[in-house]
Amino acid sequence: MNTMLRKSVLGIAGLAFAGGMIAGPATANAVPSIESKPVVATVQADKVDKGKLIPHGVQGEQSRIDLTDEQAANVKAIIAATKKAGMDERAAVVAIATALQESKLVNLGHLGERNDHDSQGLFQQRPSSGWGTVEQITDPEYSTMAFLKGLKQVDGWQDMPLTKAAQTVQVSAYPFHYAQWETQAADLVAEHWNS
User: Fold this and answer.
1) Among 149, 72, 58, which Cα is nearest to 104's?
2) What residues pair up with 120 in beta bridges, in sequence order?
3) Cα–Cα distances in angstroms (integers) from residue 36 to residues 2, 26, 33, 41, in the given order
4) Three-state SS for 189?
5) Which long-range CB contacts under 8 A does 162-169 form with residues at least 24 apart?
6) What is the spatial distance between Cα 3 and Cα 23, in angstroms, rounded to a whole number?
7) Of the candidates 160, 157, 154, 177, which has an alpha carbon nearest to the alpha carbon of residue 98?
8) Are the C-beta atoms of residues 180 and 101 closer than 8 Å to each other?
């Protein structure tokens, strides 16, 4: 209960008690009746509407991984960049699900022979495809802003299933793999959007 509300409630209760003591009962036979009901003040942070995070339901089996501190920091960076881009929670869900599929939220550098062409960073963006320099695409804020810029250019992305919106931006060889991360991405946005 916040301090101002507590002082007001206690002040009113004190006045009522003092007034009753001074005035006394209206008649000699009157028995004062005291009904006490606790005064409860609830301060609730704005909660994210889960229906807004997954407006089309999920498609297929869902995957989930435990996050390291690095991965959690990357989630927060994606959410911060989404807010900076002026986009909503659903955009953050699409971005986080995409990064979960592409890199498991690890800011990957060049992987040598295991690299998919020259893909790097959280979103596995390619310098040779115009996403930016290696330094840029391995910066979580830059790579998220680049992804969201692509998402903004997809007409009606808000009304698409997540996997279609992500695929339209990413052009992956495995377009349906993004869908498996939608529940975890939504949970992460719900947890961190207002933190």
Assistant:
1) 72
2) 125
3) 20, 21, 10, 16
4) helix
5) 162/56, 162/59, 162/93, 162/94, 162/97, 163/59, 165/94, 166/94, 166/97, 166/98, 166/101, 169/98
6) 30
7) 177
8) yes
170-188 as b/e, with b when 16 or more CB fall inside 10 Å? Answer: bebeeeebbbbbbbbbbbb
Instruction: Report residue 155 as tokens.
Output: 């007409």
Pull the structure tokens for residue 165.
Answer: 């919106």
Q: What is the pTM of this model?
A: 0.72
| Residue keyed to tokens 């995070």 | 53
Per-residue pLDDT of the chain (195 residues; tens, 9 = 90+): 444 444 443 444 443 434 444 444 444 444 444 444 444 443 445 677 777 898 888 888 999 999 999 999 999 999 999 999 999 999 999 999 999 999 999 997 655 554 556 778 999 998 888 898 989 999 999 999 999 999 999 999 999 999 999 999 999 888 889 999 999 999 999 999 998
Closest C-alpha among 78, 73, 89 to residue 142: 78
Number of Cβ within 10 Å of residue 108's Cβ equals 17
